[in-house]
Amino acid sequence: MDDDYNASHSRHLLDFYSVNLTNQMVREQYTTTTPGTSLERPKNEYVYKIGIYGWRKRCLYLFVLLLLIILVVNFSLTIWILKVMWFSPTGMGHLRVTKEGLRLEGESEFLFPLYAKEIHSRVDSSLLLQSTHNVTVNARNSNGEVTGRLNVGPKMVEFHGQQFQINSKDGKPLFTVDENEVVIGTDKLRVTGPEGALFEHSVETPLVKAEAFKQLRLESPTRSLSMDAPRGINIKAQAGNIEALSQMDIKLQSSDGVLLLDAETVRLPKLPEGTRGGSGISQGLYEICVCPDGKLYLSVAGVGSTCQEYSRVCQ
């Protein structure tokens, strides 16, 4: 019985000291006073302050103020950009977004390459592409390789591609260029330069004629001039003369046909006159004589033929 009593008494003492110790710790950490009470305040060394004080509090306020300033500046810049760039629900500035694509009004400057499937102007105005250096238009395939290029520079217009072609409004080819040939599909090719047209190689054409009331001149300054046609060459001057001038020989040759001089008057003003041993009587009339080699000369006409008498010119 004594042992049970001692054990029970020990447990009661232990519970009592535990409760007192707990109450003391609570009083040390938190103090609650109500009006009309006379509880003594605990000493300062047992009071713990909750919150941010000192330089940490000042830094926090400074950081919050800095965030507010940045927010105001960002909002002001956003309003300024929206006003300067003319943002609207339909687009930005002169740029309008429509169901057909982008519509740009007025003059615009592109600082980097422009990629587009189609570019066209308004119905009532023309399309102008302008650059301080050059304007380059590239066409690429599916692999990104350049298949055609048009470069408009300050001194020349350059095209790179397999074929260059200019068509009329009806789709008729007017001018076609490739590696093999140049085809001009117009009814007439007109050269208005003072020096005419210069061809380094042969020219194939069905007709060569001059402009009305102008002269046609075919010239080869340092080489020969040759005209070939399988079915004939026709040279015609309907209102003027035809002149063939040469420093050397002029040959008119027909292999299978004849040489026909069809005119009311045929003149040979510089044929040489034949001479004979004695002086003859000339009445201003001559006959044309032919040497065996085909050379022509004049002989004073007489009652009969005098070619035999003046045949010394053939020697």
TrEMBL record:
InterPro entries, sorted: Sarcoglycan, Sarcoglycan_gamma/delta/zeta
Membrane-topology annotation of the record: Single-pass type II membrane protein
Localization in the cell: Cell membrane, Sarcolemma; Cytoplasm, Cytoskeleton
Any one annotated GO CC term: sarcoglycan complex
Transmembrane segments: 59-82
Sorted UniProt keywords: Cell membrane, Cytoplasm, Cytoskeleton, Disulfide bond, Glycoprotein, Membrane, Signal-anchor, Transmembrane, Transmembrane helix
Domain of life: Eukaryota
A Pfam family reported for this protein in Swiss-Prot or TrEMBL: Sarcoglycan_1
Keyword Transferase: no
A single GO BP: cardiac muscle tissue development
Chief location category: membrane
Family: Belongs to the sarcoglycan beta/delta/gamma/zeta family.
Protein function: Component of the sarcoglycan complex, a subcomplex of the dystrophin-glycoprotein complex which forms a link between the F-actin cytoskeleton and the extracellular matrix.
Protein name (Swiss-Prot/TrEMBL): Gamma-sarcoglycan
Species assigned in the record: Anas platyrhynchos platyrhynchos
Lineage: Eukaryota, Metazoa, Chordata, Craniata, Vertebrata
